[in-house]
């Protein structure tokens, strides 16, 4: 070995020197670090591609060098002294503006629960208990003594944290068990666990959808999906909220566009939600599946709200509509919402799941979830499987709620009768209906522009967000004073792609009996009537 | 770096003399349980110590503390009768404890080490340079063969694809368009995974069970078909775990923290049911956040249920269009995710290179925004405290200098450094003795040093309140569960230690009850980085004395500091090429050739004392610098590090890995083990 290395030394040294010089020269180019970084971390982790990109890059640099004058037009060269002066002059904005009085009030209104959460938690600010129609405890698993006991047992075997990402000794047998349990429960080949429900779909979408791929998404998708789409850099087309006819139109227009351009076949996805977080509307799954097969799209379905709450045993929309879950390509759900633990999952075929084990960003780069939370979720599935009465109670409570609220005429309810969350809008005095159901409004027949997320009737939206938010907060306060905890739907105003209409979001639970629910919803009703009645 | 001899045995529970006599009698007579046995031993131990070192006052002795419920009956059994046999040398300590030493941990979870010499303080020596990130180059033949290996792998892969597609088309159906569907994963895109990573699959995603502590139990796998499928053999292997991010050894199923977690599950249940802003905030969140703020020395802090999401959901609330993010080129995926969502412009600088950073700063400030040349609204520099693949520590003193001049805001991701660095475990700022409040945002995770999950972001109150409302997590992400919060609170409090109430009535001396009475007077008493006022903890939380006094926490910090430096310097002395700061608990050892990764991994695992390691390669590292990454822990004993060094020494010879120093300058492994204290202090 040594002799070969000595004989080769000069040649290699020369090679190395040339390389270093080249590298140094490259590094001197403005922005080279970005390019370097881009090449290294280009979304497809593939050396072949990197090499290809390198060639492209060299080509790009050459072009840049040739058109030096043009590239430099924007670059102003300064002397060191001038730079120093500019640095001295520059004053940055403050990192975070102070909260406005309204924002402060919003923050102060956040309920803090003292002790365990459940159907009747103690509110820290008042020290009194309240009936809870705000927290996500749909199937009442948070109070289960069985689950607590199992969790303690697991704590004594596994400790708490897993101290590593799944790739590096963070995959525990209990994680694999929960993945299997979820897959069996839904009837898919496999599933994969993420350690936060919210981050799940934001990672699932970019794991599959790359630049050049096509995503057709509902205009009403939740914030996490919006972020996933943003990260994916795919081409997005939007269809009207929960309107499958609009979906078909968009799919057809996409196909027409592709034919016209004679573009290659790319991956195409429909992204939508089972029960929409935004308003509780529910998608017509059988029809959606038909459309997806007809147009040869893959379906990414976010069941974060519907998993664990909809269907006879809580398997979600696939159970409700009796559609095999294997027909949904990527079925995303929340272990946190549906099973009262933490984390999220994506169920699908073995190929879909294995792909994410390497490409799901928040799967690969984050520690796996604590063992006891994973087992708590497995226990939750067991309980749901074996006690359909839990779901029956929940559904009864939903019915009762609708029965009471449907008769209140200062509000409108966009949520589906089977949705475990019920949104309450203030009925506007002028246009008296929710936009998507606005039959009285003259709606132009022109389809909306699929490249924009803004619905076609957005211009005619006449609700005033601050006023409505304020009214709704009054309702929330009034209800709490009467011993019922409800909450406004919290939004990230200014950051959402479409501003959602202010609403109160009830989350029902099977931990309350029908009677109790009835009583609590009546309190909400009175609060609504009292506050909104005053308005006129 | 200084090594102060520690007179106390680390895990021993010690008590002042005025309590000792009375208590030992009463306990020993009334409680014929293992706990009383423990306490008796501990007192004997304490007595012996004060006898031997009458002039040294043990820092861990605190008045009014005594044996608590930290050891349940069942844990005593595990602590003393390990049921595994000890052929792998992992279940029982190499040196059995003497009757004077009492350990309250399970040896397989947290190693017994009473030798006060094996302790160091993690701190920057004032006036010295922060070591820059140097990339040692291996001999040319290594570089050459590495490139050749990749070339062969790539060629072979393409040949196999070419042949395979023609003769076994069924194996490629998922890679080619079918029925009008584009493949989920084109063969070009998945080439790396299929043709390179599959060969290494036995090193990745190894399923385990039990606690990821000092040792870990592997569920053995085998593959009949070159890693295309793997099945479980049904056997289990206990291995020395030098891979988990368990820096302070808080991954434990026994002990004060686990007891606290059990109590919290009983009191709070599993979940807080919802998002922080809409019905999912518990009083434990408020307590946890206040404690984290104290721990890191900031005004306020916000907790999020996932470390990755802490970056990806809060960075967009800090910067947006018209802002510039300057990011170290090796920053974590979560940071890049967050920055991309924020819509801010991004520029990278060379890893931890302050010159590159300064010239970039001069350029971007003078040029302003692209095209318009408007001045940037704000510039945010994002760096990590400790880089997880390189072990480099950010050159914080230099960054602070630049910050003064260039007025950018500073965001430090302390995922790996919080708890692991600094004399008080408070992260890089503590390590360098820099006031944390001169940094704008400190972010970190609980998955590593605290044995929990999730992350935090800390800063001034105004900023944090803004994040509560405008960060994505508050409105939409599930909040942290009570069990995890309790683990965070308990482990953090035991690192900080509890400030003693000014006067404690002697009647309450049996257990340390932490009541929330007279909280206002206690609130002001916190001075960073001091002990935490007991009123800052939930009233039902009791910590065993060793944890409450901070003795255990301080011991863990000092054991970690010793282990880190010992392993790092030991490997250097053996002749390996390592990266990173010598005080970093992350120690990467360079392998270069891709073929050696598998071999190294397998050879470590197949030893008499199995050792599990993490090997990382492209794309997590540059193509040539494949490496194995050790993460040392306070749970490791000095003998464990010896074991690792000996294993590396043997395997390093076989695999030709020692290219760091000339043969004549290398040390023998026996000498290294013998002169461990000296080596660690270098
Ligand atoms: C720098 C950095 N930030 C964030 C994270 C994510 O933390 P978690 O595993 O808690 O999601 C990691 C973990 O690997 C990290 O190294």
From TrEMBL, chain A:
UniProt-listed InterPro entries: Aminotransferase_I/II_large, AON_synthase_class-II, PyrdxlP-dep_Trfase, PyrdxlP-dep_Trfase_major, PyrdxlP-dep_Trfase_small
GO molecular function: pyridoxal phosphate binding; serine C-palmitoyltransferase activity
Sequence ranges assigned to domain Aminotransferase class I/classII large in this UniProt record: 130-522
Signal peptide: none
A Pfam family the protein falls into: Aminotran_1_2
Requisite cofactors: pyridoxal 5'-phosphate
Gene3D superfamilies the record matches: Aspartate Aminotransferase, domain 1, Type I PLP-dependent aspartate aminotransferase-like (Major domain)
UniProt-listed GO biological process terms: ceramide biosynthetic process; sphingosine biosynthetic process
Keywords noted in UniProt: Acyltransferase, Lipid metabolism, Pyridoxal phosphate, Sphingolipid metabolism, Transferase
Highest taxon, organism lineage: Eukaryota
EC number, UniProt record: 2.3.1.50
Pathway recorded for this protein: Lipid metabolism; sphingolipid metabolism; Sphingolipid metabolism
One Gene Ontology cellular component annotation held by this UniProt entry: membrane
Keyword Lipid metabolism annotated: yes
Family: Belongs to the class-II pyridoxal-phosphate-dependent aminotransferase family.
Protein name: serine C-palmitoyltransferase
From TrEMBL, chain B:
Bias (Polar residues) ranges: 1-11
CDD domains the record matches: KBL_like
Compartments where found: Endoplasmic reticulum; Membrane
Keyword annotations: Acyltransferase, Endoplasmic reticulum, Lipid metabolism, Membrane, Pyridoxal phosphate, Sphingolipid metabolism, Transferase, Transmembrane, Transmembrane helix
Catalytic activity: L-serine + hexadecanoyl-CoA + H(+) = 3-oxosphinganine + CO2 + CoA
Annotated Gene Ontology cellular component terms: endoplasmic reticulum; membrane; serine palmitoyltransferase complex
Biased composition (Low complexity): 33-45, 57-75, 511-521
UniProt KW Zinc keyword: no
Aminotransferase class I/classII large domain span: 240-488, 552-647
One GO molecular-function entry: pyridoxal phosphate binding
First-tier enzyme category under EC: transferase
EC number(s) reported in the record: 2.3.1.50
Similarity remark: Belongs to the class-II pyridoxal-phosphate-dependent aminotransferase family.
Protein name (database record): serine C-palmitoyltransferase
